[in-house]
Amino acid sequence: VTGVQTCALPILNIDASTGWLRGVRRFVSPNFDDRPPGVELGLIVVHGISLPPGQFGNGWIERFFANDLPPSEHPYFATIAELEVSAHMLVARDGALTQFVPFHKRAWHAGRSAHCGRTACNDFSVGIELEGTDDLPYAKPQYRSLASLILALRRAYPSLRTAEVVGHSDIAPGRKTDPGPAFDWAELGRQLGSLPSRVAT
Question: Which residues belong to the active site?
Fold first, then answer.
């Protein structure tokens, strides 16, 4: 992206041969598979998640993506424990990064979705979860880590250099609301040095 300023952001590096971000925590999810042959990365999707809703920093997200969420621990868990989902990355409230799926593999994050006439966005997107809720402000360190991650993805994968950054709600309107009105797209733009492209909601 022309004019992106990276001097104030941590520099992250992705090993494009393995799809792993160097130097961050890994918690490998079984919920991924191969992308369709010949499909290039072309979209970055921002999500919001908290388990139980509105609670942070307890490790339940990792267990959810590992198919190890105990239904008896919370009433909400009983409604989602059988789901098999994942994302490529999680950005915790303090900005810490955890990777679940290599970027060149297909994580199961978008569900029924469409972007610019293309359906099944999992096929060609990277899914990034932010620990948060639709109506509670996301933390400043999360924007810094997210911006650093977006820049790293654009360096590692040429097909992402002009790709849009959108919310889950943009590709699944009416079905999903995250990252919600609490997500500050202008702040992400400031961190990147220019406002990222986004489908209008």
Answer: 129
Percent of the chain with pLDDT over 90: 90
Instruction: Please give the pLDDT value at position 194.
Output: 61
For the entire predicted model, the pTM comes to 0.93
Cβ atoms of residues 201 and 168 within 8 Å: no
C-alpha 137/C-alpha 157 separation (Å) is: 30
What integer pLDDT is reported at residue 199 of this predicted model? 42
65 and 85 Cβ atoms separated by less than 8 Å: yes
pLDDT higher than 80, residue 89: yes
8 Å CB contact between 170 and 180: no
> In what helix (H) or strand (E) does residue 25 lie, and over which residues does it extend?
strand 25-26
The single-letter DSSP state of residue 110 is: S
Residue 144 sits at φ, ψ, to 5 deg, of: -65, -45
Residues 6+ apart with CB under 8 A from 26: 20, 98, 99, 100
CA 131 – CA 151 distance, rounded (Å): 20
Which pair of tokens denotes residue 13? 């590096």
